[in-house]
Amino acid sequence: MAAPRHLPIRLSGVIMPVSIQDLDALRALTALFKEQRNRETAPRTIFQRVLDILKKSSQVVELACRDPTQVGQLASSLQLITECFRCLRNACIECSMNQNSIRNLNTIGVAVDLIFLFRELRVEQESLLTAFRCGLQFLGNIAARNGESQSVVWLHAFPELFLSCLNHPDKKIVAYSSMILFTSLNASRIKELEENLNIAINVIEAHQKHPESEWPFLVITDHFLKSPELVQAMYAKMSNQERVTLLDIMIARVMADEPLASEEVPVFLSHAQLLASTFVDQCKIVLELTSEQHAEDEEALVIIRLLDVLCEMTVNSDLLGYLQVYPGLLERVVDLLRLIHVAGMDSTSIFSTCGYIKAEGNVSSMAEGFKSHLIRLIGNMCYKSKDNQDKVREMDGMPLILDSCSPDNRNPFLTQWVVYAIRNLTEDNCHNQDLIAKLEEQGLADTSLLKKMGFEVEKRGDKLILKSTSNTP
Is the preceding peptide bond at 412 cis, omega within 30 degrees of 0? Predict the structure, then answer.
C-alpha cells in the first residue's frame, strides 16, 4: 500500500507541502515569505509547524548545555533553528496579521528561551552565531510597529537579554539587540531603565565600540536624550570615556541640520542645567593639563567636551536665554580663561601659545581650541545681554580677551572669536565701548584688531569715542 500523500497548501498560487519536516522545505518557505503577497496569505497552521520544529530542535541545544559532550550533535539542529528564525523573521515583515498569529502561539517566549541557551553554550561555532543573530532579527521584526508584540518581547527579554547581548563580542548581535531595544522602548520602559542603568550604559559602550552601527546611536538619540532623568542618572554612573561619548552625541544633535522640535526644548533645557552645573563645579580640573604628560587625562577631556556642548547650546536661541542667566557660569568661564591665559605664559604648558606645530602632530592635543571656545562661550553669553556685558567688564575680562589675540596654533580661529566676543560685548553698551577706546589709547588694544571688528577710535576733545567704520566686515 502506498504511503499517504500530504495535502498541499497554496500561497498566492505557489504550492507548498503541508508537512515541513526538512531543511529544504523550510528554506523554500523562507524564500516565499520574501514576497508580500505570500506573507499576507499564509495560514496560521504553517507557523505552528515551524514552531514545533523550533521546540524540538531547542531540546538538542538544551541537552548540549547540560552535557558538553553533546555539543558535537548540534550542527543539524542549529541549521533547522536558523532557518526557522529566518522563516518567521521574513513572515513578520510589514505584516501585522502574521506578527499577531506568531505571537499568539507563544513563539516569542520560545525564541527568547532559546537565545538564553545560546548564551550558555561555551562553543565558538559560526553556525551558533548565525542562529543567535537570526533569533534576534526575528524578535526585532515581530515587535516592529506592533505594540502588543513589543510588550511581549519586553516581558520576556528585559533585562536579561539586553544585559547579555549588548556587550557581546559579535557586533551583529550587539546591533540586533540594540534594534530590539529601540523598537520596544517607550516612556514607561525608559523608567525601568533608570533602575537598570547597566543596560543604558552598555548602549553607550556599544556606540563607542561600533560607531558605524546605527542602532545604538538611534537608541541614544531617539530615546535616552528624550529623558533628562535617565541622562542624569546615567551621567552620574558612567566612566569618563562614556561621558565623552554621550556628550559627543549631544553635540551632534544640537548641531544637526534639523532644529530641536518644540517638545525637545524643555528636555534640552534640563540637559543644559546638568551640563552647566557640572562645568561650574568641575571645570578647574582642566588645569591638570598644564604639562604634556597629562594629555590623556580623561577627567579633563570631559570638561573640554562640556565646554564644546555649551558653546553649541548657546547658539540655539531657545537654550541661550537659560544659560545666559545660569548662576556662576559666566563668572567661571571668565575665571578659567584668566587661569588658562596665565598658564599659557609657561612655554612648557599645554596651553602655551605655539608658533609652530610639532612633527608628531601635537596640534591635535586635547587642549586644542579650548581657549578659543572659552572666548566663544563668553561672546555667546553676552549676545544682547547688557547684564553679562557689564559683568565681563567688571571682572576685567575685556583686556583679558583682547590680550588673547597672539597667533596660536593650538587655537585655530582665535582672533575671529575674539572679534566676535568684543563685538557682542560692545553692542549697545557705551561703558564697554569707552573701555575699548581707552585700552586702544594705552596701547592695550590692537588698532588692526579694532578695524577687523569694524571700529576705530576717534578723539573728540578730552573724550575717546569708539565708532563704526564704513568697511564693517
Answer: no
Closest CA to 209 of 173, 250, 155, 159: 173
Q: Answer yes or no: is pLDDT of 21 > 70.
A: no
pLDDT tens column, 393-433: 999 999 999 988 766 667 778 888 998 999 999 999 999 98
CA distances from 178 to 14, 93, 219, 294 (A): 36, 18, 7, 35
Q: What is the DSSP letter of 312?
A: H
Contacts of 256 (CB under 8 A, 6+ apart): none
Which residue type, as a one-letter code, is found at position 7? Answer: L
Mean pLDDT across the chain, nearest whole number? Answer: 86
Query: Backbone dihedral region of 102: left (phi > 0), alpha (psi from -120 to 50 degrees) or beta?
Result: alpha
Beta carbons within 8 Å of 18's beta carbon, 6+ residues apart: 6, 7, 8, 9, 45, 49
**3-state SS assignment for residue 17:** strand
Neighbours of 422 (CB within 10 A): 26
* Three-state SS at 463: strand
The identity of residue 166, as a single letter, is: L
Among 148-162, 300-314, 364-378, the range scoring the smallest mean pLDDT is 364-378
Task: Tell me the pLDDT band of 83, cut-offs 50, 70 and 90.
Answer: very high
Residues 6+ apart with CB under 8 A from 163: 196, 198, 199, 202
